[in-house]
Amino acid sequence: MVPGVRLLILGKQGAGKGTQCVRVARHYVVPHISTGDMFRAAGRMGTEFGLRAREFMDAGELVPDEVVIGVVRERINQDDTANRGFILDGFPRTTEQAEALWDMLAPRGIDLAIDLELPTEQALRRLASRRVCQVCQTNYSTENRPKHDWTCDNCGGEVVQRDDDREEAIRRRLEIYEASTEPLIAWYLERDKLVTIDAMGNPDEVFARLVRAVDRRRGVHG
Ligand code: AMP
After folding, report:
1. pLDDT digits (tens, 9 = 90+) for 180-201
2. Residue 216's pLDDT is what?
3. Which helix (H) or strand (E) holds 116?
4. What is the pTM of this model?
5. Is residue 146 in contact with ligand 1, taking CB distance under 6 Å?
6. Ligand 1 center to residue 148 CA distance, Å?
7. Neighbour-count burial for 99-127, b at 16+ CB within 10 Å, e otherwise
8. Which of 61, 90, 214, 221 could form a disulfide with 56 if both were Cys (CB 3.0 to 4.6 A apart)?
9. Helix, strand or coil for residue 140?
10. Which CATH number is correct for 6-30+85-218, 3.40.50.880, 3.40.50.150, 1.10.3720.10, 3.40.50.300?
11. Which residue minimizes the CA distance to atom 2 of ligand 1?
């Protein structure tokens, strides 16, 4: 078996990508690379790059391909990812990004693209109730609150609604997902790299399905 695992996750907003990626990263001991988290961190630091990215994010629009590709290229070439692998979250989101990633990772490429599949009305319900820690990005919801008010159980940070989880931005992000990102499902299927996971149910159930599928692909039986 090849050491490390190279994964990426697709799925509309609200499908549970962030929640599952945290678990996958822990399980396979690989870095969780989330382009959204990287842009949000840059925005909080107030760098020119971060503030510009935030304008796109708050409007629910995509950050331009060349910017995102540059950020991922830099991250993916670091030692930890080169040696252990990674789980990519929120990248690629366009065919151009998928092609750039394919070239970046040649010849080994990725092991698997995981499509977390969820009906849109379910995704909308989850997004409306989603809350996130401003500091460590842990996900909560109005049904799964932190133990004390809206203070993060992990780090004590403030738990809030993301600016781009408001109704207008959500609608726009789902439209963009359908137009730009959904075609990647067929793109990875054609290259025999796709597995589709049913994202209905609680996070433990979805995670169990996901690990089964990844291990099957890696040749681990059990
Ligand atoms: P996420 O946390 O993955 O939902 O990303 C939040 C926002 O960051 C997106 O709505 C985009 O504005 C931006 N973003 C994150 N990843 C990408 C990407 N791969 N391409 C373009 N924009 C991105």
Report:
1. 999 999 999 999 999 999 999 9
2. 92
3. strand 112-117
4. 0.89
5. no
6. 30
7. ebbbeeeeeeebbbbbbbebeeeebbebb
8. 61
9. strand
10. 3.40.50.300
11. 36
